Prior knowledge:
The protein is an alpha+beta fold. It is built from nine helices and eleven strands.
Amino acid sequence: MTYRKKLIEVALPLEAINKASAREKSIRHGHPSTLHLWWARRPLATCRAVLFASLVDDPSEHPEEYPTEKDQEQERDRLFRLIEAMVKWENSNNKELLAKVHAEIFKSTGGNPPPVLDPFAGGGSIPLEAQRLGLEAHASDLNPVAVLINKALIEIPPKFANCPPVNPEAKKSLMAGDWHRAQGLAEDIRHYGKWMRDEAEKRIGHLYPKVTLPKEYGGGEATVIAWLWARTVKCPNPACGAQMPLVSSYWLSKNKGKEAWIEPKVDHTITTPMIRFTVVVGEGGPIDSPKVGRGSQFTCLCCGSVTSEHYVRN
Ligand SMILES: C[S@@+](CC[C@H](N)C(=O)[O-])C[C@H]1O[C@@H](n2cnc3c(N)ncnc32)[C@H](O)[C@@H]1O
């Protein structure tokens, strides 16, 4: 096989690629970044441009078509314009443009483009873009979260491309037979996602009640969305018996300007005293936690008894 220099080895329209890549950070609707958090996500625009330019020949490799340097420069410019258009987010699913892009790749690869393998695929930007460019894409990663993201992004949707949804409500819908790309799959995910949410609300919704917000948090009602959880032991003092939270710090956030911590309050009005916590934000900081020294010894907030390490561990 004769080696032919690829466009990426000669030049790239970097300014347009950088601009489109930077812009992607603020795009949320329809972007894979909303599928699942991934901390080292590569911009789709860069991956798209790099894959394309790694497969398409530099015009200097075709002197029969572009004999002079000027001809080559002109052809390179044409390829640059194509890259500049394809990296734009709005063109991600532009059929005509993608058809032109496929045609260029086919031309440079004798109609048989190589498959793309990203063995460290992370958030899946490279295999996703390879698939968009009409290439056979393979991905793997050591991290199971990355594997799941890649399955959801590039493995499962093509299997259901152009398929109608299967949920009973959509089956009755007027759109029967008119489902393109991942529309049917998306409809099913929406339907069954809602079903799961509703079921979860039915079964555990009582654990996430509505609470009245203090004025400093904006007032009104809000739904509890998360609980902070701590191990507890029963206070060894038989006259107390309170559940002692085994926490080593009351800090929730030490970020500058966003300091937050919890403040314990003991309710002695009931037979077995109970500790309630309130979240405090602003300047200052929490009181010392009930942890004593370096081991697993804790002070009871209700009666001041100190547990032995043996008691806590057993
Ligand atoms: C920089 S990230 C890849 C980012 C990715 N290109 C993207 O667009 O999101 C590197 C990835 O390599 C994976 N990795 C590291 N060591 C690995 C190994 N030995 N085998 C497979 N994957 C590995 C990590 O889990 C991580 O997801």
